[in-house]
Specification:
The protein has 13 helices and eight strands. The longest helix is centred in the C-terminal third of the chain and has 22 residues. About 50% of the residues are buried. Helix 6 packs across helix 9. Helix 2 links the parallel strand 3 and strand 4. It has one domain: Alpha/Beta hydrolase fold, catalytic domain (Rossmann fold, 3-Layer(aba) Sandwich), CATH 3.40.50. The chain has an eight-stranded mixed β-sheet, with helices on both faces. It is an alpha/beta fold and about 325 residues long.
Length: about 325
């Protein structure tokens, strides 16, 4: 009886989440399955090349759209992608359990959309995909902006629920029964944790729609991604030295999710044509907290003269005051 009730609750809440956050993109067949993306056309006088945005773990295209669409609309063609098995994209085959498979999927989507080359902007888990994209599709990359990227081997492991959910039978049962009620209770504190020590974006739960990840199949896809990441980057990170396209790496010294002194410093070490921007007082969401810096990085990769270190210094002054206010409020 309790099991049936849990299944019913999950199904009901999943349908409710999809009604609240319907698909805003367009599904494109990229060869046996469809990838979902929102394309924003440029204005009459664009000053930037196409930009492709890759979201992180537990995310969907709304996460990056809410951060970047308004300040960039009209300046370039913007492509916000639901990674395979996330948001409203279909999962595809087992190759999409790994970053290089997802990079290939995004490359095929770009071809279908008529985008020959683009600046790639990737947050968190998306950084591993962006690095793989630069490795395997160098002809499609103008440059890459890595935002709190997860790209290198790290000590320890991952949270227990990722490994449990990735299991064939137990994981399916777990995701269809316990995840939804627990996840609904955890959405707000989890969001505050991801942004910490910075103030969460107002209305982020509505704008970024993180609740979409609580749907059982999406939750399992996300778990497989995370469970496979450590072994993947252990194998692939030594090849990053082959990447010749330019990159800007933006990271915070207070990131509670991705260890910047491993991943971001590793990228700087391995990418010949890269610039590392450390921001004091910044957590895991530079896309929202220092959006101006991320946009300046895009502009620099497009050939514009931008002093990223000076912009970061101004952001640090602002964050020092904001973080103090946030800490006092908590």
């Amino acid at each position: 009886m309790l099991l049936a009730a849990a299944f019913g609750f999950t199904a009901t809440e999943s349908a409710k989440i999809e009604r609240e956050f319907p698909n805003t993109g367009t599904l494109t067949d990229i060869g046996g399955y469809s990838l979902n993306a929102l394309s924003v056309t440029p204005g009459p006088n664009p000053d930037l090349p196409p930009i492709v945005f890759i979201h992180g773990a537990s995310g969907n295209l709304r996460d990056q759209e809410a951060a970047f669409r308004a300040p960039l609309e009209g300046r370039a063609e913007l492509l916000f992608v639901d990674r395979p098995g996330h948001g409203y994209s279909e999962r595809g085959g087992p190759e999409n359990d790994f970053p290089d498979g997802q990079a290939d999927a995004i490359a095929r989507l770009m071809e279908k959309r008529g985008i020959a080359k683009a600046i790639i902007v990737a947050h968190s888990f998306g950084g591993a995909i962006a690095a793989s994209f630069a490795l395997t599709h160098p002809d499609k990359v103008i440059g890459t902006v890595f935002l709190s990227a997860a790209t290198h081997p790290w000590p320890g492991g991952i949270d227990w629920h990722y490994r449990l959910t990735a299991l064939p039978v137990i994981g399916w049962l777990f995701s269809h029964t316990l995840v939804m009620p627990a996840g609904m209770m955890m959405l707000d504190p989890a969001t505050r944790g991801v942004f910490r020590p910075n103030r969460p974006r107002e209305n982020y739960l509505e704008d970024g729609a993180p609740a979409l990840v609580l749907r059982p199949e999406t939750f399992r896809n996300n778990a497989r991604d995370v469970a496979n990441l450590l072994a993947y980057v252990t194998r692939v990170a030594p090849r990053y030295k082959e990447i010749k396209s330019p990159a800007v790496i933006i990271t915070g010294d207070s990131d509670p999710i991705v260890l910047a002194n491993i991943h971001s410093t590793g990228l700087k070490r391995d990418l010949e044509h890269s610039e590392l921007i450390w921001v004091k007082g910044l957590g895991h969401k530079p896309d929202y907290v220092v959006t101006d810096l991320a946009i300046a990085a895009i502009e620099k990769l497009a050939g514009k003269d931008r002093d990223l270190q000076a912009i970061a210094a101004l952001d640090e002054k602002r964050l020092a005051a904001e973080n103090l206010t946030q800490a006092q409020a908590e």
